[in-house]
Amino acid sequence: STGNIMIVGAEESINRYALTVTKSGYETVNTFIPYPDTAFYPVDTHASVMAGELNTADIIQNKTAGIKSLSKDYLGNPVGDIDFRLIGGRKIGTAALPPNNPIYNFNETDKTDSNGEKEFSSVSPGPYNFELDASEEDYELAGIDTNSPFSLASEDNLEISVEVAPKNIASLLVRVKNSLDQSLI
After folding, report:
1. Residue 17, burial from CB neighbour count under 10 angstroms (0-12, 13-18, 19+)
2. pLDDT tens digit string along 85-136?
3. Taking a C-beta distance cutoff of 8 angstroms, is the pair 30, 38 a contact?
4. What phi-psi label fits residue 92: left (phi over 0), alpha (psi between -120 and 50 degrees) or beta?
5. Which of 14, 46, 166, 177 is deepest in the core (most CB within 10 A)?
6. In this structure, is the dihedral angle defined by the CA atoms of residues 77, 81, 86 and 89, taken in order, positive or negative?
7. Which is nearest to 165 in space by CA: 58, 93, 77, 99?
8. Dihedral (CA of 116, 158, 61, 121) sign
């Protein structure tokens, strides 16, 4: 009930005790073996046990959130079967090679349904980036009502409206903004 566990008599080992923390309504958190045995520098490494000492490992677990994507045309009509990529959530590490980008626990390539919708429930909070996937042949991204990247907090249910335009039609999208606060006019 206090969120603690004590394992007495564990054998001595350096960064070899893998931990996985799960609870309904919360994100799942895993530890990783340190770099270079993992292809990136993990945030949460496997636990160690040193003989004769009290060894501790702290794991922070957040309540999950939800994201719903709606793809539509410039008139607001649903556009289905749009291939997209969504990356973000809990930062699990940093890439080992420059530019040392963050590695997140959510990295999905998916497609909206025939109504232009795709919902992800029970995802980790954190920063997210939405983009059309390179496999999307028919449409281009014209805009997103929530700037990408965007931030998702615990227990948030965010709906993002994605505006797409056909690639085969020459077009121009103009958004007029107030010069003082950048709000749409």
Report:
1. middle
2. 999 999 999 999 999 999 999 999 999 999 999 999 999 999 999 999 999 9
3. no
4. alpha
5. 46
6. positive
7. 77
8. negative
CA atoms of 112 and 13, how far apart (whole Å) = 46
86, 120 contact by CB (below 8 A): yes
Q: What is the pTM of this model?
A: 0.84
Question: Which residue, among 143, 119, 141, 133, has the nearest Cα to 85 in the 3D structure?
Answer: 133
* The residue to which tokens 């004590």 are assigned: 6
User: CB of 162 within 8 A of CB of 168?
Assistant: no
